Amino acid sequence: MRRQAKRVADPVTEFLRTEAAGGFALLVAAAVALIWVNSGAAESYESLWSNELKIGWGEVAISEDLRHWVNDGLMALFFFVISLEIKREIITGDLRRPRAAALPVLAALGGAIVPAAIFLAITSTGEGARGWGIPMATDAAFAIGVLALLGNRVGTGVKLFLLTIAVVDDVAAICVIAVAYTAELSVGWLGLALVGLVATALLRRLGVVSVLAYVPLGLFVWIATLESGVHATIAGVALALLTPARPVEGRKVLEELEEGLHPFTSFVVLPLFALANAGVEFGGDALSESDGTRVALAVALGLVVGKFLGIAGMTIAALRLRLGSLPSGVDLRGVLGVAALGGIGFTVSLFITPLAFGDQVLVDSAKVGILVGSVASALIGTAVLMLGGARPGSGQEDVIEPARPST
């Protein structure tokens, strides 16, 4: 039993370690982008990411600017890796047990619905209402990076609770991107993408475990998805869900892919994404229009207030109704700290922003709201976990008692 628990814990521990270090790399890249854009070299920033890069030959060539190659291409790898994590958690991790999964699922749903509701309440009369998906996401890398700064002030249970909520949150974000932010569909290309996925499934049924055999099919599925109008990153999600979660002929394919790609996405893909997308000029036009100000306020309040109320409120309500249980070592302080850190919505929020808005002023306004809301959430979460109550493991935690059945 102990050996089985260790097999489950080891990949999670490694994931947390890489995610925390990746969060620092992401922070540095975002800071560089902000300094770059707000310095005298601002023109070179936009010039760099607007450069066109053509890959391929003749009719099959794809030409995009560098920012789109990062957002549509490299970020497909990021969504592939987080989808591998989602599948592993569902098949062999905490989400496989209904009672353990119930609480983070409900908490994540609360943390998605309340921010979207707050956003729409503020922007319903303006042009910015289409951005309701922006404050729904939690950036696991940044949030876990903040927890890493706190060291042993925060127990492993709190980190796992946050990670599990973030995993469920990612599922919601993927659904939002696929359904709400899909352009006009090309049925032919979508059909070709499905053919590629079927061929991938057939290779798996035939027992092919060599990753190299799947690379051409993966590229084909990505190209077809890109051309279909569905955002290209969804190809990464679909391919991850077809990856076997259990060993095949003795090979742990999912774990091998996750261990091989997670450092690359954490230390290369996400920092490049932040560098390409986090640049916003604070002295520009972002808050000069009423619609822009409204969007920035809606995003910031959605992240800071909506995430906190949604996650904490749903968690406490679920515990009172006996709908789930907290991980070992998580007290009321841990719940409130995780709820606050859930408002760090950096990566996926930035990713959704240009999908939601065509107006650059609204894009920049949303970025300001994301940055302000994420920083505020990080500070509030840190303060809650550092200053409130006893340290985990001291035996003096505030316990949330389930409701007693009425007599």
Question: Which features does this protein show?
Answer:
407 residues, 2% strand, disordered N terminus, disordered C terminus
Q: How do the strands line up in the largest sheet?
A: 1-2
SS strand fraction: under 5%
Shape estimate: globular
Low-confidence stretches: 1-8, 389-399, 401-407
- Tell me the helix content: 55-70%
How confident overall, as mean pLDDT? Answer: 83
What is the count of β-strands?
A: 2
Helix-strand pattern, N to C? HHEEHHHHHHHHHHHH
Question: What class, by secondary structure content?
Answer: mainly alpha
Mind telling me the C-alpha Rg?
21 Å
Description:
By secondary structure, this protein is mainly α. It has one domain (2-182, 231-387): Na+/H+ antiporter like fold, CATH 1.20.1530. The chain is 69% helix and 2% strand. It contains 14 helices and 2 strands. The chain has helices at 2-37, 42-49, 66-91, 98-123, 140-149, 156-180, 187-205, 211-228, 233-241, 253-277, 290-320, 332-341, 346-356, 360-387; strands at residues 52-55, 62-65. Strands 1-2 form a two-stranded antiparallel ribbon. α6 (156-180) packs parallel to α12. It is globular, with a radius of gyration of 21 Å. The two termini are 39 Å apart. Mean pLDDT is 83; it is low at 1-8, 389-399 and 401-407.
Write a brief caption for the model.
With 407 residues, the protein is mainly α. It is 69% helix and 2% strand.
List the helices and strands and how they pair.
Elements: H1 2-37, H2 42-49, E1 52-55, E2 62-65, H3 66-91, H4 98-123, H5 140-149, H6 156-180, H7 187-205, H8 211-228, H9 233-241, H10 253-277, H11 290-320, H12 332-341, H13 346-356, H14 360-387
Antiparallel strand pairs: 1-2
Helix pairs in contact: 1-5, 1-10, 3-6, 3-9, 3-10, 4-6, 4-11, 5-6, 6-12, 7-8, 8-9, 11-12, 11-14, 12-14, 13-14
